[in-house]
Amino acid sequence: MKKMKNYFKIGILLFGILFVLTNCEKEDLSDSSTLQQVNQKQNPLIISFKKNFYHDNFKDNFMVKNLEVDWNSYSMISNNDLSQTFEFKTNINSTISSNNKNRIFSKFNLIAIKDNKNRISIELIKYLSNDKNSLKK
């Protein structure tokens, strides 16, 4: 009976240790040195990008009507003496569905660059992949 109580105490102790260790806070493994989430209110440069972005610059009428840039969700890709580069997430608002026989998926991001001469360049980047999950990053 005494052995049974000792096993029971050891079991409770091990269970308690296991419970404490599994509920520890997980470390954030995202690389914050290269991709920094910043607030639009803190950075007037984002407002400048927004003012310089025109849908009319696109030759594709579909993009003009359906591209929506999320100006609040962006990452600073680089910030050095030569330029500042930001990446913005976009959405395509469309109900058009096509038969994707080749299983090629796409995603668009907007890249905005301000150089050391205060010139602004904005490019729309199209990512293609045969794996839909790889585009969710």
Q: What is the CA-atom radius of gyration, in angstroms?
A: 25 Å
Please summarize the sheet with the most strands: 5 strands, antiparallel
Q: Determine the N-to-C terminus distance.
A: 58 Å
Order of helices and strands: HEHHEEEE
Low-confidence stretches: 30-36
Report strand %. 25-35%
Strand order of the largest sheet: 1-2-3-4-5
Shape: elongated
Question: Number of domains in the coordinates?
Answer: 1
Tally of individual helices:
3
The chain-level structural class is: alpha+beta
Strand tally is: 5
Please estimate the helix content.
25-40%
Mean pLDDT score: 76
Could you outline the blueprint of secondary structure elements for this entry?
Blueprint: H1 2-22, E1 36-37, H2 44-52, H3 61-66, E2 67-79, E3 83-92, E4 105-115, E5 120-129
Antiparallel strand pairs: 1-2, 2-3, 3-4, 4-5
Description:
With 137 residues, the chain is an alpha+beta fold. The model is unreliable at 30-36 (pLDDT under 50). The chain has one domain (32-94, 103-136). Helix content is 26%, strand content 34%. It is built from 3 helices and 5 strands, in the order H-E-H-H-E-E-E-E. The chain has helices at 2-22, 44-52, 61-66; strands spanning 36-37, 67-79, 83-92, 105-115, 120-129. A 5-stranded antiparallel beta sheet has the order 1-2-3-4-5. Strand 4 (105-115) and strand 5 form a beta hairpin. The relative contact order is 0.13. The longest helix is centred in the first third of the chain and has 21 residues, at 2-22.
